[in-house]
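# step 3/5: fold
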Amino acid sequence: MKSIYSTVLTLIFFTISCNSNTTNKDNSHKEQLTQEQLETYETAYFASGCFWCVEAIFESVKGVKEVVSGYAGGKASTANYKLVSAGRTDHAEAVKVYYDAKVVSYKTLVKVFFGSHDPTTLNRQGPDAGRQYRSAIFYKNAKEKQIVETYINQLKKDKVFNGEITTEVVKYTAFYDAEGYHQDYEANNPNNPYIKGVSIPRLKRFQKKFPELLKKKAH
């Protein structure tokens, strides 16, 4: 009976995983900043499960100007969804966050990162399992590394999480943008089963936990 129950759960998780039900829906409704404008802002790189979820969370944070879904931390010299989802490149689904450092600090983004997922589940986040869904922070310099390590040490000291924090803290090397249909996926596909069952609830939990970090809604 136990094995049958486990099989059923696995099938349910698979049907609503980040690796299913992708569509090519246009996302041109979103106002886009030019690359020249984006380059005036700071960047940060994070991975904490399905990038559909992570992108939406960081997009909701004030001071964040743009979030791009993509791939980071792999051994291969290139990456695409087919290869990464099959675990063939060791890349993680990640996001590139463009942010205004005058409005939101890197430390606050690290707070958003740890406050919006479970960093104790090794190579897994919710229904998504595999190295591509690992928890990781890709620091660009010694200052960012110190901020991350200090924050993790404080989390451990305060015993914020019951389990061991498995987040990889590694030097940033390269980031590959995900395919166009992955960008703004949650906003563009609100009726997708995974978005309704996993992404939106995860976003709402974060928003409820940190209302002071959210962008003001336009009236």
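# step 4/5: annotate
The radius of gyration is 17 Å.
# step 5/5: archive (pending)
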